[in-house]
Design goal:
By secondary structure, the chain is an alpha/beta fold. The protein is built from 1 helix and 20 strands.
């Protein structure tokens, strides 16, 4: 038996996503140009991402990257928009080609480098600094320490994971859902947990 209602609903959803992608890309291209954010060809958006560039800093996005900020554009569920932000004049966020982001947040005070073909699962966070000072008297006046983050090529960071300052993740590795990455992860492994540890080799 042919599932007519399923076909119709699926077609409506796909049409909505195509329209959303078209208008989101138009808006974001204008916004990125005004904010002097470097971006390559074929960058796609579903919903409006939030991009905040500190004066003097660099945000660079490679070709064919995609950003899903609409709540239903990824059916695993997104609880926020994609956010890219720099927090000092020397800060850099450099993203390679063909990377995918779903409700992902990247915040840099120093530098976050993302390789090619990297996938960020829904609601992930990557930050190279503490956002607040550690000592009670500094929590409102300091952004704390920072250390660069390097994410290699073809890395997959699972749903709800957090990657903290000073971490390097090697090529091809997978970070399991809801992991907290506080130390380097080598290439070609599956790692997970809090704190994130190597589980097995790929």
């Amino acid at each position: 038996m042919v599932d007519f209602s399923g076909k119709v609903i699926s077609k409506i959803r796909n049409t909505r996503l195509r329209m959303l992608g078209f208008y989101s890309k138009l808006w974001m291209n204008i916004e990125m140009s005004v904010k002097k954010i470097n971006y390559g060809s074929g960058v796609r958006f579903w919903g409006r991402a939030c991009m905040v560039r500190h004066p003097g800093s660099v945000i660079s996005i490679g070709n064919r990257c995609s950003f899903r900020s609409d709540a239903t554009s990824n059916l695993i569920g997104l609880n926020r928009k994609c956010i890219l932000s720099t927090h000092s004049a020397k800060a850099e966020i450099v993203i390679g080609t063909n990377c995918g982001f779903s409700g992902a947040v990247l915040g840099a005070k120093e530098k976050i480098t993302v390789g090619n073909d990297v996938l960020f699962g829904a609601n992930t966070l990557v930050t190279d600094f503490d956002w607040h000072g550690i000592h009670p008297d500094e929590r409102r006046t300091s952004t704390g320490d920072s250390k660069p983050i390097i994410i290699g090529n073809k890395v997959f960071i699972g749903y709800g994971s957090v990657v903290l300052k000073g971490v390097t993740i090697g090529d091809n590795s997978v970070i399991g859902a809801n992991s907290v990455v506080t130390k380097d992860i080598p290439a070609n492994v599956i790692a997970g947990g809090n704190p994130c540890k190597v589980i097995k080799s790929l």
